Please model this.
Amino acid sequence: MTGFGEDWPGDGLEVTGVDSGLWVSGVDYIEGWRTARESADRLNRALLCVGLELSAVRAVASTNEDGRAVVRVVGWPDAVDRLAQLLDGRADGNGGAA
Model:
């Protein structure tokens, strides 16, 4: 679920170079990324099902420095606001889901 143009907001990981400190030798980033990718794909399918365009808001698979799975939601502010409205509509008013 990738393939967006250069106008797409980045996921905050535009780190380059061997000395960036992002990768630690011996850490299995691939397994964490695979786990995150499954969850990100699931969320992206849900976003599509509620009418949001992945060119405006999407889930991005990543890992942290320890190789743990991380899913980030990135998007244009208006699309994120629409997602927040959809989630607010599902809340029961007491901080929980209806």
